[in-house]
Amino acid sequence: MMDREKLIDELIRDEGLKTEVYHDHLGYATLGVGHLIVEGDEEFGLPVGTPVSEDKVKEYLNKDIDIVCSELDRNMSWWRNLDDERQRVMANMCFNLGYPRLSKFVKFLAAMQEEDWSKAGEEMLDSKWATQVGNRAQRLKDKVVNA
């Protein structure tokens, strides 16, 4: 079973945590730990800077983690056979990229499934994503290779 509390700590470190509505780097209304505000969220349409409680941030974060895990379960059931550290890497990447973009990391995913950790690490860093997220990619690669 994946250590959810460790994943939460890692996502807060990697994504940041803001207790207000803000625009992400693409200009979308966001809050908490990278939660994209969508129609149906009570914060939908509220202006940037609107405060959001820490409890609400944690609620959204847990829901978003549930979505990530469900997408991985539905599409890559083998991910649950990985050790805790590597499961958290998969969840972290899926949280950051979304499942559709993660699914395009074909060589990385094949290496993970085959437990070829060195190859998986190489494939992680051989991507546009790695240049975009910088130290996060290196940290996650190190977890895959050294877990």
Low-confidence stretches: none
Strand order of the largest sheet: 1-2-3
Q: In total, how many beta strands?
A: 3
Give the helices and strands as they follow along the chain. Answer: HEEEHHHHHHH
Relative strand content = 5-15%
Helix content: 55-70%
Describe this structure in words.
With 147 residues, this protein is mainly alpha-helical. The protein has helices at residues 4-15, 54-75, 84-97, 99-102, 106-113, 117-125, 128-133, 135-146, and strands at 18-23, 29-32, 35-36. Strands 1-2-3 form a three-stranded antiparallel sheet. The chain is elongated.
Question: Keywords, please?
Answer:
mainly alpha; three-stranded antiparallel sheet; 3 strands; 59% helix; elongated
Summary, kept brief:
By secondary structure, this protein is mainly alpha-helical.
What is the element layout, followed by pairings?
Blueprint lengths: L3 H12 L2 E6 L5 E4 L2 E2 L17 H22 L8 H14 L1 H4 L3 H8 L3 H9 L2 H6 L1 H12 L1
Antiparallel strand pairs: 1-2, 2-3
Helix pairs in contact: 1-3, 2-3, 3-8, 5-6, 6-8
